[in-house]
Every structure is written in structure tokens, then in C-alpha cells.
Amino acid sequence: MKYDFPKLDLHLHLDGSMLPESAWEMAKERNIKLPADNIDDFKKFIVVTADCRSVNEYLERFEMPLQIMQDSSAISRTAKELVELLAGQGLAYAEIRFAPQLHTRNGLTQKDAIEAVIDGINKGIENCPSIKIGVICCTMSVGPETANMEENLETVRLAKDYLGKGICGIDLAGAEGIVPLKNFHPIFDLAKELGIPFTCHAGDSQGPDTVRDAMDFGSKRIGHGHHIFDDKELCKSAIKEGVTLEICPTSNIQCQSQPSYEEHPAKKLFDMGMNITINTDNMILSDINLDKEYDRCLNQMGFEYKDLIKMNINSVKASFMPEEEKQPLIERLEKYYK
Ligand SMILES: [Zn+2]
């Protein structure tokens, strides 16, 4: 179904959202070895199938797009095309996230990568002025926190330099559960010191303890976070603190961090009073868009139409967009309650 209210996506990774045709073309231009010899097989390779067994296996699917996005022109093109894709789907606002440190294999600096993304976003918005975009810089969990703390802190400092100039916040993404999430606190200590808004991946493949760690960092937004449901006391504190969960239903099913749409606790959490939002995580990799996610919400997850409006209002409130832009968008959404 096509949903015509202004839609928001707060949790969307750039490297999981590269158009297959563009990936094909750019890989060829760069002499990158392709895993298929025709575009149809290549598309099948790019899109995650149901055989993906864990978050960590899912993360391996990012290798191809990352291999391609090691120069400014590939990064910029991917960002531009994603903005155009989102605008075409009727999104009013999206936060696109990426990890600058994953684009430095061929000599780019993190700063170069950030500038390339901002350049692409600006070009996309120029073509599609109906959409607004914020960029979140991801720090990465790739092993013990000491493995890349320097790179992570550099990401935070750069995010500060570009805050309000394309960048709207930071995140921590990557493998969960190698070391306790709380070990990554220096990232969030610095973000707080510098006044950078942040969200944090937690409670996806791992249990509610990781959500508690993210909340202890001071995070009012949690990437995924659905396993908070396993700890009712923590749910109560999260509701009291106004924490917002960035739920990405299809991603959770594909990574098998939830057994099915029907058993996903999002609606139960919503009914408890938690601020739930619906997002896509990886649009191309997961072969998903917000309209398809909303269909799942209505047909399999127990949500009603009005809940979709409420969840988009939640997205506006939790977003890192300038405060003065929030109220007009909330008013536009409220008209759809009737
Ligand atoms: Zn994510």
C-alpha cells in the first residue's frame, strides 16, 4: 500500500542502501571483482535472503558496497541517489547514517568521507527539495573497544565540526556483544562534552543489559532496542525517561533477532507507552521501504493506521532536526488522524 502522510526514517544506513544498478556500474568502473556475471544475479547477491543467520552475518553483506565507496565520487553518488529514492517514496525527513572510518581504505580521510556524503546529500536535495535530511556519523564496534577508539573519537570530533552543516548526530554501530557495550563510554562522554546529539545501537542481537548501558550513556534514542521487552523494570524506566526505540522490523527478522513479525514486541512496547518508531535500517540490502514496513505493521504486527501516524510523530519528536522544524511537521501529520 502507498501511505500518503509525511513519512520519517530515523534509522537508515547508507552502505545498506546502494542501488544495485549503481553498485554494478561503479564496481565495474573501479575494477572491483563482482560476485556475479549479470545484473540479475548480482541483485540476488545484494539482497539479503532468509538464510541470513545473525546480525554478524548480516553485517558481512556490507562488504561489497563498502569496497565500492572508497572514493569521494562513489560516496557522493550513493548519498545523492538515496536522497532521491527516499523523496520519491514520499519521505518528509530522513536521517542517513554512515561510518566515516569505513571509507578510508584507499587513502580518504574521515573528513573527506563526511564531505563526500554531505556533497551527495546536498545534490539530492537540490533535485528533490520536498525532503529534509540529517546525517548521523557512526562510530564502530569492531572488536574490543580499544581496537579503534582513536578512530571513533576522531569521528565524534569531526561530527562536532560539521554539526548543523549536514551532520546532526552520532551513533555506535557494528558487531554487538564482543565486549560489554558500556566499555564504549568514552565515545558518548566526548559527545556529551561537545554537545552532539546521539543514538546508540543496542538490544538487537543482545539482551536488555545493552539497552541499559546505552541509557546510562544518556542516550534518549536506541537503535533497535526491542530486547528491552525482556526486562519490564527497564521498560518502565525507559518510558519514564522518554526513550525512543528505532524499530526496524524486517531487519530484526532477517537477522533473526526476532522470530517473526507476529512475535515482534513492538506493538506491546507501544501499548505500554514506549516511544516506538518504524524504520528500514537497510533499504536495498533488506529489499524494504517504509510502505512495506507499514504493511507488515498493519497486517502482521498488530498496529492500527492511527498508530502509524503516532509513530511518525514520535519520529519527529526524537529526530535530530532543528527544534523549530518539528512543530509544523507534527501539525501536518496530525491532520491524518481523521
Ligand atoms: Zn542499524
Highlighted features:
single chain, 338 residues, alpha/beta, 4-stranded parallel beta sheet, 15 helices, globular, binds zinc ion
Question: How do the helices and strands line up, and which of them pair or pack?
Answer:
Elements: E1 7-13, H1 20-29, H2 39-46, H3 55-60, H4 63-68, H5 72-88, E2 91-98, H6 110-127, E3 132-141, H7 149-161, E4 167-174, H8 185-194, E5 200-202, H9 208-217, E6 221-224, H10 232-240, E7 244-247, H11 249-254, H12 266-272, E8 275-278, H13 290-299, H14 305-318, H15 326-334
Parallel strand pairs: 1-2, 2-3, 3-4, 5-6, 6-7, 7-8
Helix pairs in contact: 5-6, 7-8, 14-15
The site of zinc ion (ZN) has 6 residues, from strand 1.
Give the distinct bound molecules. Answer: zinc ion
Distance between the termini: 18 Å
Number of strands: 8
The largest sheet has its strands arranged as: 1-2-3-4
What helical percentage do the residues reach? Answer: 40-55%
Radius of gyration: 19 Å
Query: What count of helical segments does DSSP give?
Result: 15
Low-confidence stretches: none
Question: pLDDT average, as an integer?
Answer: 95
What is the general shape?
globular
Structural class: alpha/beta
β-strand percent reads: 5-15%
Helix-strand string? EHHHHHEHEHEHEHEHEHHEHHH
Main β-sheet: number of strands, strand sense, barrel status? 4 strands, parallel
How would you describe what is shown here?
- The protein is an alpha/beta fold and 338 residues long.
- It is built from 15 helices and eight strands.
- The strands form two sheets. It has a four-stranded parallel beta sheet with strand order 1-2-3-4, with helices on both faces. A four-stranded parallel beta sheet has the order 5-6-7-8.
- The protein is globular.
- The model has no long low-confidence stretch (mean pLDDT 95).
